[in-house]
Amino acid sequence: MPESSSQSNSDQRSTPELRGRAGRMLTEKWFSYLCVATATSSVAVLCWLLYSILSHGLPALSWTLLSNPPEPDPEQAGVRPAFFGTVWVCAMCGLMTLPIGIATAILLEEFPPKSKLGGWVYGLIQLNISNLAGVPSVVYGILGLTAFVSMFGLFERDQDSQSSGFELGVTYYNQFFSEGDRAILIPVENVDDKLSVVSEGMEAYTFARDADGATIVDYSKLVPTEINVITYDDPYPEDPAVLENTLFADAEAGRVSQKSWYYFQVPFGRGVLAGAMTLMLVILPVIIISSQEALRAVPSSLRAGALGLGATPWQVVRTVTLPAAIPGIMTGAILAMSRAIGETAPILIIAGIVYIRNAPQHLMDDFTVMPLQIYNWTSRPQEAFHDIAAGGIIILLAILLSFNAIAVLIRQKMQKPLS
Amino acid sequence: MVPRINSMNTVTKANTVTSKNTVTTEKEAFAGSPTIQTATPTEISQEQFALEILNLDSWYGDFQALHGVTIKIPRNQVTAFIGPSGCGKSTLLRWCNRMNDTIAIARASGTLRMGDTDLLSKSIDVVDLRRRVGIVFQKANPFPKSIFDNVAFGPRLHMKANRSELADLVEWSLRKAALWDEVKDRLNKPALGLSGGQQQRLCIARAIAVGPEVLLMDEPCSALDPASTLAIEDLMDELRTQYTIVIVTHNMQQASRCSDKTAFFFEGKVVEYGPTDRIFTNPENKQTEDYVSGRFG
C-alpha cells in the first residue's frame, strides 16, 4: 500500500517495488505440496485401516455371523441382536431427529422473532444448540437415563408386579405349573394384585402342542383350557390328562407377560426408544446447525419472489426454501447418522451390558448395538473373537453405508441449481 | 385510456402537507402547500388513482429513508421513479406491497392508500395485498422449478384452479409476457435454463398470472442487454392498458420512453412529479433538470 504521506503530494503516485515473482511461485508450490501431503496421509491411514479390517474380517464374514446370536463359541457366535438393535435404534433416531431438527432450523432461520423477548428466546435456543454440539456423548447417556429411562422417577414403578406407570399392548399372566407339569396361565386382572388366588371356572390358558405332542413355548399361540382346583383334602387325581390341568388352591404363581409389537410404556425403560431418543440428543445439534446453514444458503431473492407473489411464510418454506435446502440438509443428516451409528458411550449407559439373544420385538425391548458387541468381542483374549469383531465392523460399515445411500439418493433427487 | 392528469405538484420541502388522512381530491391534498401549481384545476375522482401516497415517512432504524413523500399514481398508466441510488425510490416501491415487512427495522408513517384500503394498516392481509400488487425484482429470480410451475406458482397459492384452467392461465400469462412462442415447447424444462431476458419476462408472467391490479417493477432491466430491455419495454407498453405499472429505473431514456408520469427522488424526498414529457423537457426544478440532463446523479 502506498503510505499515507502521499496525501501531501497528490499528483505523485508512490511506486513501491514489485514483489519478487520467484519467491511467490515457490510458496505457491510448497503450499500445494503441503495440501497433497495432508490429503494423502489421511487417505493412507484410512486405507491401512480398511485393509486391516478387511484382512481380518472378510474370512470371518459368514451367514452364521449375521444370523446367530452371540455365543461363547466364536465359531457359532453372531451379531443378529446387535444388527437389528443398531437398525432399530438408528432408524428410530433418524425418524425422530430429522423432523425436529429441520423444524427447529426453519423456526430459527425463516421465522424471525417479532419482539425483543422473542429475540432473546431465539438467542437462548441458538446458544443452547451451539453448546450442546460440544458436550461429550457420555453426558447425553446420563441425561437420557434420567429423562427417558426413568423419567425423573415421576412414575412409581412396582418391581414385584413388573408394572410401570402406563402400559399399552401387554397382557400379564400368573403362570402356574400344574401337577402334571404343564404351564397354566391365568390372565391377571389387576397388575398390582400380588396374591394369586385360583378357583375353578377361571379363564385359563396353556401352551399349544405341535403334531408330535411337544409344547410350543409361544405366548401368542395360547389355547384355552379348563382348570381343576383341588385342596389337600381332596383325592389326588390319577389320570395324567386330569393332572395336567390340576392345581392346588394355594399354588404359587410366577408373573409372566405377553407383549405385542406395539407395546408401549411410560417411563420408557432401558429400551430401543430410550436409546434412540438419547442418540437424538447427541445428533440434534449437528442436524440443526447443518440445516440452518443449508437454509441460509438459499438465495433470499427466491424468498422475496415467493413472498411477492403472496405466499405466506409457511408456503414460502414449503414450496421454495425447503426444497432448495434439502440437499444441504441431507449432507448434514449423513454426517449425523454416521455419528449415531458409531456412538457407544450413551448406549452403554442406556442399554447396559446385558446379554441379548433376540432382535428387539417392540420399542421398549432390551437391545444392544453393533459397537457394543464389537467392543465386547475385542476385549476378549481369544484371537478368534478379534476376527469376528472385524467381521462385525464390516457389517457395521455396511449398515452405515446403506443409511447414507438413502440420504445420498434423496439429495441427488432434489439437487437442482438455485440460480 | 384514462385521460392524462394535468395537475402537477412540486414538493420541495417535507412536511408541507398538513392534512393527512382526510384527503379526497388532489386540490385539497395540497391545500397549504406553498409550492403547489395546478395547470388545469380539474376535480379528479379518486377512482382514477391506483395508489395514493400522502406525506409518507419511512425509517430503517434511525435512518429516515423517505421524507413526506406525496405521490398519486394514476390508474392504467406507467409511472416511473427516477433518482440517484439510495434516494428512497425502491423503499417507496416496497411499501406499496409491504415487502418491507421482511425487514425488521423498517417502519413507515403517513398514508398509503389503494382505493379505500390503508396499505400501512397493521390489520391488512398482506398475502391478499401482494396478490393485488405484484412485484418484479431487479434480478430475475425464477424458482428452481419448471417454466410451467413458475408461472403456476401464484395461481396455485391463491386459486382453486383445475388442471386445464391452470394450463390456460399459464398460457395466457406467458402470451401476455411475450414469452409463449419461445417456451411453449419446453414448459416442463427448468426455468433456470432460460436466458436472462427470458427469465425476467418469466418473472413478469409469474407476477401477472395472479391477476394483480398494480405491477411494481424494481429496475427490471438493469441486468439485461438492450434487446431484452426493448422486449420488456414493449411489454410494459402493452400491459399498461390493463395494469397500473410503477417502475423504478436508473435508465432515464427508459423512463422517458415508456412512462406517462415521472417522479424524481432525491435524498428521500420527491423533488418533482409530473407528466414525463414535461419532467424531461421542461422541468421546474433545477435539481431535476441537472439530473435528467445528466449533469449530476
TrEMBL record, chain A:
Domain ABC transmembrane type-1, chain residue ranges per copy = 83-407
User: What are the TM regions of this chain, as residue ranges?
Assistant: 30-54, 82-108, 129-155, 268-289, 340-357, 388-410
Q: Name one Pfam family in it.
A: BPD_transp_1
Keyword tags: Membrane, Transmembrane, Transmembrane helix, Transport
Show which residues constitute the signal peptide: none
Q: How does it sit in the membrane?
A: Multi-pass membrane protein
Instruction: From the UniProt record, list the coiled-coil ranges.
Output: none
Q: Which domain of life is it from?
A: Bacteria
State the SUPFAM superfamilies in the record.
Answer: MetI-like
Example GO CC term: the record gives: plasma membrane
List the subcellular locations.
Answer: Cell membrane
Q: Give the record's family classification.
A: Belongs to the binding-protein-dependent transport system permease family.
Protein name, entry field: Phosphate transport system permease protein PstA
| UniProt organism field | Rubripirellula obstinata
TrEMBL record, chain B:
Which biological process annotations from GO are given for this protein? Answer: phosphate ion transmembrane transport
Which segments does the entry list as coiled coil?
none
- Specify whether ATP-binding is a keyword of the entry: yes
For this UniProt record, the keywords arranged alphabetically read as follows:
ATP-binding, Nucleotide-binding, Phosphate transport, Transport
Pfam families linked? ABC_tran
InterPro entries assigned to the protein according to its UniProt record, in alphabetical order: AAA+_ATPase (IPR003593), ABC_transporter-like_ATP-bd (IPR003439), ABC_transporter-like_CS (IPR017871), P-loop_NTPase (IPR027417), PstB-like (IPR005670)
Q: Does the keyword Hydrolase apply?
A: no
One function term, GO molecular function aspect: phosphate transmembrane transporter activity
Under Gene3D superfamilies, the record lists: P-loop containing nucleotide triphosphate hydrolases (3.40.50.300)
Top-rank taxon = Bacteria
Q: Where is the ABC transporter domain?
A: 51-292
Q: Which NCBIfam families match?
A: 3a0107s01c2
Name the UniProt record assigns to this protein:
Phosphate import ATP-binding protein PstB
Q: Which organism is this entry from? A: Rubripirellula obstinata
Phylogenetic classification of the source organism: Bacteria, Pseudomonadati, Planctomycetota, Planctomycetia, Pirellulales
